[in-house]
Write a structure and sequence with these properties.
- The structure is a single chain.
- It is built from eleven helices and 20 strands.
- The chain is of the alpha+beta class.
- The strands form ten sheets. It has a two-stranded antiparallel ribbon. A two-stranded antiparallel ribbon has the order 3-4.
- A hairpin with a 5-residue loop joins β5 (167-168) and β6.
- The longest helix is centred in the N-terminal third of the chain and has 18 residues, at 24-41.
- It starts with a helix and ends in a 10-residue tail after the last strand.
C-alpha cells in the first residue's frame, strides 16, 4: 500500500501504520502548536556565544536563523504523531517562508494549514470544500455561545454543537437535565438550576418539579403551576367564551410535584460490604467505614441516633437513640428498657406493666 510505503520512508522518526488516528487538519494544528511553543521557548536565546552585539554587527539574527528553526522543528511533533510529522516533512519550505518573513504579520495556522497544505478551513467552517458553516444564532454566536462546534475549521469535521454545562439541543439553546429556561429569545438562553431532586422543572421552587431525578420520588402532587396567580384572576374572568378559553388554558398547565429523597439505606439491604455502613445522601448513598458512637455497642451509623444497643448505664430514649442518663424509675416502670444493660426491650410498645 502507498500509505505504508510512506510510513517506511518516515520510519526514522518511529512512525507506524497504526498511528494514523488524527485528521490531517488536526495533525497540522499539532504542528503549528509545536512550532509556536518552540519559538516561545527559544525567544531569548542567541547563537551560543552570548555576544548579541557581534551577531548584529555580522548581520545575523537568531530570531530568523536556520539554527533556531532546526531546533524548533526537532521537537515540534511527537514521534508517534504521523499526521504532524508528515506535514512537517512535506511543507518544510512553506514553514521556512513563514518563519523568515511572516512571523509577526500572519497566523501560521492560516498560512500553513488553510492556504498551503489545504487540510483545514477557517474557524467556523467545515466540510470538504469549507463551504458549510457551524450552527449559530442571528448574532453569529456559534452554538449560541453555549458550546463548541465539533470539527470547526476541519474539512473532516461534523459541524455539530457539543453543548457545555446546563445547555442542550442542536443549537445549545435549550436547557439540559435539572435546569429550566429562566430567560430566552432568538439570540440568548439562560438556564437556571432546578431545586434539588427535580429532573425537569418549571422553576427553582421545590414544589415546581415536573419529574424527579434518580434517587428521589414524588412526595405529593401539587396544584398546576401558577395556580395561586390564576385563582386571583378567577374573579376577573368574564362569562362566556373568554371564561371558557381561560378554563381550558388552566387545564392544560402541567401538574407539578414535590420530590423527596429516597433513603436507600432503609429501603434496601446489603448495599455495603462487611465492615462498612450505609450513609444516606441527597439522591444517593455512600458506604462509610464502620465506627459506632462511643455510647453504642452495636450500630448502623456513626452517631448516637444509629444504635441497635446502648452501653451499660446509657438509655435508649427512642428507637435507635442512646443517651447517657441514669436509669429513671418511670422508664423502668414502663419497661421501656433494661436498666441492667441500657438496651431497649423488644417491641416496647407491646409490653404492659405487670
Amino acid at each position: 500500500m502507498d500509505f505504508c510505503k510512506l510510513v517506511l520512508v518516515l520510519a526514522f522518526i518511529g512512525l507506524s501504520c497504526g498511528t494514523e488516528t488524527k485528521s490531517p487538519c488536526q495533525g497540522c494544528k499539532d504542528l503549528v502548536d509545536g512550532i509556536l511553543k518552540g519559538l516561545d521557548q527559544t525567544k531569548n536565546k542567541n547563537f551560543g556565544g552570548g555576544d548579541t552585539a557581534w551577531e548584529e554587527k555580522k548581520n545575523l539574527k537568531y530570531k530568523v536563523s536556520e539554527t533556531r528553526l532546526v531546533e524548533v522543528l526537532e521537537s515540534a511533533c511527537d514521534k508517534d504523531n504521523f499526521r504532524c510529522n508528515e506535514i512537517a516533512a512535506e511543507r518544510e519550505d512553506d514553514i521556512e517562508t513563514w518563519y523568515k518573513t511572516m512571523q509577526d504579520s500572519k497566523s501560521l495556522q492560516e498560512f500553513l494549514c488553510v492556504e498551503k497544505a489545504e487540510v483545514c478551513c477557517l474557524e467556523g467552517k467545515f466540510g470538504e470544500n469549507c463551504e458549510e458553516s457551524c450552527p449559530a444564532n442571528e448574532n453569529g454566536d456559534i452554538c449560541f455561545g453555549n458550546g463548541k462546534c465539533e470539527g470547526s475549521g476541519d474539512k473532516q469535521g461534523s459541524g455539530t454543537c457539543v453543548c457545555e454545562g446546563a445547555y442542550a439541543g442542536d443549537l445549545c439553546n435549550e436547557c439540559g437535565p435539572r435546569h429550566f429556561k429562566g430567560f430566552g429569545n432568538d439570540t440568548y438562553t439562560m438556564c437556571t438550576p432546578c431545586a434539588n431532586g427535580c429532573e425537569t422543572c418549571l422553576s427553582a421552587n421545590d414544589t415546581d418539579c415536573l419529574t424527579c431525578a434518580a434517587g428521589y420520588r414524588v412526595e405529593k402532587a401539587s396544584e398546576p403551576a401558577e395556580k395561586k396567580e390564576a385563582e386571583k384572576k378567577d374573579a376577573e374572568k368574564k362569562e362566556g367564551e373568554e371564561g371558557e378559553a381561560a378554563a381550558v388554558e388552566e387545564e392544560e398547565k402541567p401538574l407539578t410535584v414535590s420530590c423527596t429523597d429516597v433513603n436507600e439505606c432503609v429501603e434496601q439491604s446489603d448495599l455495603c460490604p462487611v465492615g462498612e455502613y450505609c450513609a444516606n445522601t441527597e439522591g444517593s448513598y455512600s458506604c462509610e467505614p464502620w465506627k459506632c458512637s462511643p455510647i453504642c455497642t452495636r450500630c448502623y451509623g456513626p452517631t448516637n441516633r444509629h444504635c441497635f444497643e446502648c452501653i451499660q448505664g446509657a438509655i435508649m430514649r427512642a428507637p435507635f437513640i442512646c443517651q447517657g442518663s441514669e436509669c429513671s424509675s418511670a422508664a423502668v416502670a414502663n419497661k421501656m428498657f433494661n436498666c441492667a444493660t441500657g438496651n431497649a426491650n423488644p417491641s416496647p410498645l407491646l409490653l404492659t406493666s405487670s
